[in-house]
Fold this sequence. Notes:
Blueprint: H1 6-13, E1 20-26, H2 28-31, E2 41-47, E3 53-57, E4 61-66, H3 68-76, H4 80-86, E5 93-96, H5 108-131, H6 135-158, H7 168-174, H8 181-202
Parallel strand pairs: 2-4
Antiparallel strand pairs: 1-2, 1-5, 3-4
Helix pairs in contact: 3-4, 5-6, 5-8, 6-7, 6-8
Amino acid sequence: xxxxxxDDIIKASKLDPSRIFNIYLFGSxxxxxxxxxxxxxxxxxVANNSVEAIEIKGDLYNIHIYTxxxxxxxxxxxxxxxxxxxxxxxxxxxxxxxxxxxxFKLNKNKLRHSISHISSNSWVKAKKKLLDGEYRTGIKSLxxxxxxxIFAIQIAKFxxxxxxxxGNYIWDRLKEKNWTAEExxxxxxxxxxxxxxxxxxxxxxxxxx
Length: 209
């Protein structure tokens, strides 16, 4: 596994190093599905920046830059990318001057809402992208629609994500052939619904009176 050089990432971000607090690797490199020929390196950066959220996409790096307050707000909302950052293994946390993990408190209602929303949107996006001819983006979206609640189940059981490769069996199946949108819906719909049902059992709605 080739881990990107932190100096190269900082250079690609075009930010002064003194403004950068945290740098996390996420995406395919973290899951173990990275393919050198077609995958770029996904990076989340926390920095003192004038814009609260910006994406810099180049040939090699796809860098998402957030201000400290924006990263914390998204983490408080239980956004899956932010959860992956704080639970990432040491090699993927390239720089971590701000400790978000120690102050994070799991809220079951927030996690259920966030994961259900993102997983369902990814499922719908998969079909749309396939029909628009964006095949790789489509199958990646379908993979994420199932992978995300698998990660959330780990958080429910262990309080962390302890196996970032847990959903890769889905990616392996997706790569077996070229699928049509209809075939994918037929092949994976029950699995998607089953994983979401398992996830919701760990995070039932809490009635507030």
